C-alpha cells in the first residue's frame, strides 16, 4: 500500500479550544440522543439473552454506546453546553418479560449499526475541530469492527442468506436508449439495483418486527395506532421490493416476525419507542434517496419516490405526537434575529 505523503499545516482553526460549529453541535447532539437510547434497549436485551455469542455481541455494542455518550458529555462540559436529557432509567423496565428471541438481537444490531455508520460517515467530512473529528473517526472504526462481528455471527448461525449472486461480466458493454425503460422492454436489474433492493428488504423486515413488537406493548392508543400504520406501510414496501427480486428469480431476505414474542408488557416507555421509530423511519428516507440515485430504470425510481413520500408522512405524524406529549428536545439552533428586540 502506497503511504500518503505528509502535509505539514499549522493552524489554530482546528484546535480543540475553538468553538464548536453548527455541524459539530448537531452531529454530537444527535449521536448523544441515539446512543443514550441504545443504552436502555441493549441493557434490556441483556436481561434475557441466552446465546453466549450473541450476549458478547450485545455487551460489545453496549460498551460502545456508553463510551460514545461519555466522550460527548466531556466535550459538552468543556463548552458549557447543556447535556441533553436523552433517555435513562425511566425509559426502560429491565424486569419486563422477554419480547424478542435471541436471533432478533443480531438483526437489530445490524439495522442500528448501519444507521450509526451513516451518521458518522456524514459527520466526518463536516466536522473541523480536531477532537470532534478524532471522535467520529473512532466511532466509525469501532462500529465497523462491531459490524464485522455481527455479519460473522449472522452467517455462522445461518440467520441470513448472502445477497443474490449474478453472472460475472466477461467483457465491457455499453447501454442502449432502452436502459431506463421501466414499463415496456424492461432490462434485467443491474448489480446496484439488486444490492439496494436487498438492503431495503433487510432493513424493512427488521423494522417491521420491531414496530410490530412496539404496537403490542404501547400504552397510548394514539401511539399504538401509529405503530400499526407503520407496520402495515412497511409490509407493503417489503412486498414490492421482494416482487422486484422474484421477477428476476433472485432470493430475498426472510421475514423476522416470528422472532417477536406475544408479550404485551412493555419494557420501554412510549417516549423511547416513538422516538426510535420516528428516527429509524427518517433514516429510511435517506436510504430510499440513495437507492433512487443508483437506479437506472424509471419504474424503480418511481417506486422508491412513492415509498419515500409515505414514509415521510409517517415521520411527520410521529413528530406531531412527540411534540404534543412534550417529549421532543430542542436541537441546537441559529439565532432568530427577527425576534431580537433592542433594550
* Secondary structural class: mainly alpha
Supply the CATH superfamily name of the largest domain.
Ferritin, core subunit, four-helix bundle
State the shape. globular
Biggest sheet descriptor: none
Which value, in Å, is the CA radius of gyration?
22 Å
How much helix, percentage-wise, in residues? 55-70%
**CATH architecture verdict of the largest domain:** Up-down Bundle
InterPro entries: DUF3231, Ferritin-like
Pfam families: DUF3231
Protein name: DUF3231 family protein
Observed structural traits:
343 residues, mainly alpha, Ferritin, 2 domains
Describe the 3D structure.
The model has no long low-confidence stretch (mean pLDDT 91). This protein folds into two domains: 22-156, Ferritin, core subunit, four-helix bundle (Ferritin); 186-324, Ferritin. The radius of gyration is 22 Å and the shape is globular. The chain has helices at residues 22-45, 52-78, 102-126, 130-156, 191-217, 221-247, 270-294, 298-324. With 343 residues, it is mainly α. The chain contains eight helices and no strands. The relative contact order is 0.12. Helix 2 (52-78) runs parallel beside helix 3 (102-126), helix 3 runs antiparallel to helix 4 and helix 5 (191-217) runs antiparallel to helix 6.
